[in-house]
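Researcher: Re-running this chain for the archive, since the previous output was lost when a drive failed. Same request as before.
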Amino acid sequence: MIGFVVFSLRRAWQGFWRNALMSLAATATMVLMLVLLAGFWIIQTGLLSALDFTEQKVEVVANVKTDAPQSDIDALQAKLTAMPQVAGVTFVTRDEALARFRQSMIDQGREDLTKYLDSNPLTASFEIKLRDPSFSAVVADAIRQDPAVRNVLDTKDTAKNVKTVTDILRTAGSVILLVIGVIVLFIIVNTIRLAVVARSEEIEIMRLVGASDAFIRWPFVFEGAMVGLLGAAITLGLLAVLADPIGRFMVDFFRVLPLSFGSIARDVVVIVTGAGLGLGVLGSWLSVRTYLIR
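Model: Regenerated structure tokens:
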């Protein structure tokens, strides 16, 4: 078995360089397709990260009555913490709310007019993080009649719109990625098939002398794997050279959102290598199979 694998690898290496023009054409096509696939995946990852961040920002705010006793406030916080729809609860005091407002005025370059007021006009509040934006209405309705609550800022419509947009974009992104994958597979298979067609006489001669299907197929499969791995290596090299421009683009494009792209490099290596190897092997397998079933 090992001897057959070594023999097939040797023949694949010889076949790759014996038909260097077609092999390099298949490799170039592989590189173009893998760059397209990786580029779209990188953009989709950034968009999904942005959508996840947007979903996390959907929250319910419950303003607390200024004369509410501490016992009622504590009871409301305990109630919110116990709700399964709630991911986290933050209590913002009146002083903290005023400090936030003043800081926002500074950030916007506007004059802070609160310094002319005799007292703090803002109320304390609970900022309620949701496990899912769709829980906004449920949580708001559950606390609206609480004795400590002055009013509830319900982002129900915003949550519904965000949920709809994220679902559409996630579905559309997956469909587009699948369509690109099918197109890439079609182009790669037909490119490798051209290389196999150029060696059709070699295949026919081997069949005439009694070579088994495995003896004919596996060298081509290994050759396809070589094309895929070479294409993946070149693609990763190009992406490494372009890493800084791509990184700056991602940061600039999503600069309004505090996103992290630390795992993209690792995921791109896995996706490009796996896609290159898989497409090369599958393309060669399907191309040679056309001749073997005749």
